[in-house]
Specification:
single chain, about 375 residues, alpha/beta, Rossmann fold, Dihydrodipicolinate Reductase, domain 2, 8-stranded mixed β-sheet, 6-stranded parallel β-sheet, 14 helices, 14 strands, about 25% strand, globular, disordered C terminus
Length: about 375
């Protein structure tokens, strides 16, 4: 790490000038720029007209359609990837080789093999650049408060958990050519929609040991699933369920954890505040204890801004960010295991999927009825 980095803004480059960059990443970067923490110095997109319009609108000094040229000429500290998942491996590796940290929009990569290839480019020393994933639900004040209480054992032993991402996507949504395809969307609702809730559940509950999954196409004409369910066993013995759907008109995102001394519930849609959490004590818990549980402190919503603020602080301090390395891989491994279990009709244990396993290199695992019908299709659309 350069000795002056803690005392100057991180020079950030945005890759991809589409909707997620405009709605989430750039506002977060601009907020931190106003606080003296970041400086947006470049934007890259394959569409020359779009990238120049983006740069002009937001007064970004460098615009290009060439990622490698930008990395060589601008030498940013932080590269923010707002591109489709099929590009994340190549772009993350290029950024790391250029000496930049990476903050990558979900889904992280189309496979564990891709994720591991990115991690292999990290030097691994204190202060060396690394890649991290956008899992912003870990970073709201509500999650921080509940996570601390769970780690301290304040609620007693976790026993039963439920994670629900039941959203609705109509036929028009899937008329966009890249949606519903393994190579370009990275997966169905287990990967592209429910991943945030799943990541938060795993962050709160700790390591999982076994998953038994089911998946189906019930409505949409897609390669991937449009609904999935899973049963989980955690390392501490707790059990849980996960439901991911794009078939649910009454949309909701929900996590519930039943512990010995309390039930913790989070109900929201795309982001939460402190008021979206509810803690229900078991009979006999002292009122003063419950009052402490309900003291969430200052309300910081889950958001890209909340995570980016934490990431920038970690980079400047020379720390590993929570969603980098193993901290990001655990969620992708769980989703991969869910797909393997669903498509093989067998339980999958943590650590089972590695090199040589077809699910290590593709989430569909070449399973009949789930793999792309054209064997060259993934290469053509990657």
């Amino acid at each position: 790490m350069s000795p002056d980095r803690p005392h100057r803004p991180l020079r950030a480059a945005v890759i991809g000038a589409g909707g997620i960059a405009r709605s989430s990443h750039l506002p977060a970067l601009r907020t931190l720029a106003a606080e003296g923490e970041t400086d947006v110095v470049a934007v890259v997109d394959v569409d020359d007209t779009a990238v120049r319009a983006f740069a002009d609108t937001f007064r970004i000094p460098y615009a290009s359609t060439d990622l490698d040229a930008m990395l060589a000429e601008v030498r940013p500290d932080l590269v923010v990837l707002c591109t489709p998942p099929a590009l994340h491996r190549e772009q993350s590796v290029a950024a790391l080789r250029a000496g930049a940290w990476v903050w990558c929009e979900k889904p992280p990569c189309p496979s564990l093999a891709d994720y591991d290839a990115v991690e292999a480019e990290e030097k691994g020393g204190d202060g060396d650049p690394y890649a991290s994933i956008v899992f912003q639900h870990r970073f709201g004040s509500g999650a921080r408060h509940v996570r601390r209480l769970l780690r301290e054992g304040a609620f007693g032993r976790p026993l039963v958990a439920h994670c629900q991402t039941t959203w609705y996507r109509d036929t028009a949504y899937y008329s966009v050519p890249w949606r519903g395809r393994w190579a370009t969307e990275g997966g169905g609702p287990a990967m592209g929609h429910g991943i945030h809730q799943t990541d938060l559940l795993l962050d709160l509950m700790g390591p999982w040991t076994e998953v038994r999954g089911m998946a189906a196409r019930l409505v949409h004409d897609v390669e991937t699933e449009d609904v999935s369910t899973a049963q989980i066993r955690f390392a501490d013995g707790a059990v849980g369920t996960v439901v991911n759907s794009v078939l649910s008109p009454d949309e909701v995102s929900r996590i519930r954890i039943d512990c010995e001394l309390a039930t913790i519930e989070l109900t929201h849609l795309y982001g939460y505040r402190n008021a979206d959490w509810r803690i229900t004590p078991a009979p006999g818990v002292p009122e003063e204890t419950v009052a402490g549980w309900h003291d969430f402190g200052e309300d910081e919503p889950s958001s890209h801004l909340a995570q980016l603020r934490a990431l920038v602080a970690d980079i400047k301090a020379g720390r590993r960010h929570a969603t980098s390395g193993a901290g990001g891989r655990q969620t992708l491994e769980f989703i991969t295991a869910l797909y393997k279990s669903a498509f093989t009709d067998a339980p999958v244990r943590a650590g089972d999927i590695g090199p040589g396993d077809p699910y290590y290199t593709a989430l569909h695992g070449d399973a009949p009825g789930w793999a792309p019908a054209d064997p060259h299709q993934e290469e053509d659309h990657a």
